[in-house]
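Contributing: when you submit paired examples, paste them exactly as shown. First protein:
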Amino acid sequence: MIRVVLADDQSVVRAGFRVILELAGDIEVVGECADGPAAVRLAHRLAPDVICMDVRMPGGDGLAATREITSGAQQGSVPAVLVVTTFDLDEYVFGALEAGASGFVLKDTEPDDLVDAVRRLANGYGLVDQTVTRRVIAEFARRRPAHTASADAAHQLTARETDIVRLLARGMSNAEIAAELVIETSTVKSHLGRAMTKIGARDRVQTVVWAYQNGMTS
């Protein structure tokens, strides 16, 4: 069962998301809150798999909460943060991506897409194959060029690792990358894991951000 926390200051939004997610059968909403600080507390207390995080909440926005929640990655497993926003190209979204969010959906997303997003994040996949996310990442990378240390990491990647990161940035899944390169899916996962370690990326979405920042998307 996928454990989810909902963080949104609008109770009607939380109620709607709860109904949509719990109808899926494999998702349980274990907590709700109306501001960022409460989301941080619930993340520590309930250890959910995914937090659906609004970025604009009067009692404390989701930006600082996302940063605080994801900063615990080095101490062990942390929830994946799914940013829920009204605007797909919003300064708050860029900030959440920088803070470590793993994916994005719009508040008017289709129910099936919301369920799919939660499942993907729970399984360790960011929403890198979604049009909105690719646009956000591309704009984010344009506004925030890679710093020297990050760019230098590109030289540490092998040719195969470079190919895999480039295909990931195009929105391909592991299976699609394996088919493109005529290798096993397990091989893709191994190479990608080593590449992520070299570039200091926490997850797949952060790897795609790095690829955009370093011109590896062509």
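Second protein:
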Amino acid sequence: MTFTMRQATVADAAAVLALTREAYQKWVAVTGREPLPMRVDYAEALLRNRIDLLYEGETLAALIETQLEPEPAPGHLLIVNVAVSPAFQKRGLGRRLMAHAETLATEAGLTKLLLYTNSLMTENISLYQKLGYLIERQQQFGTSIQVYMGKSTSKK
């Protein structure tokens, strides 16, 4: 498999939404609703966040959305969304994108990576823990519980 990565532009908003909806569809039955990333206006999100697209040939396989120094967490990189097409899952692409986020944080001189997920998405929580992320807190969010996780990164 030969993969290439590029940063998304506003012109990619529809493709980002389509891949995200496809990737998160399995969680609708688990959580009882569409997860937040399925409902985002990505044309707007691309104005404030970075989205990197991972392709196999011409096919969009996966993406990661990050935000530098989100409020109220200066010095941090927030991983907003990681989405892998079901056709490409279980091939290490999620791990590859998470490593990319660590590189972005380190290059920006940031000290920590943050993310949050629904407590019912246990498969994701397990992956993040294997990658060194620690659960920092859990908080009620509407009808669900958000799990906030973090990982320190070494500054250059």
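If you have annotations for the second protein, write them as plain sentences, like these:
The helical segments are 13-24, 26-31, 42-48, 93-107, 122-130.
The longest strand covers residues 59-68.
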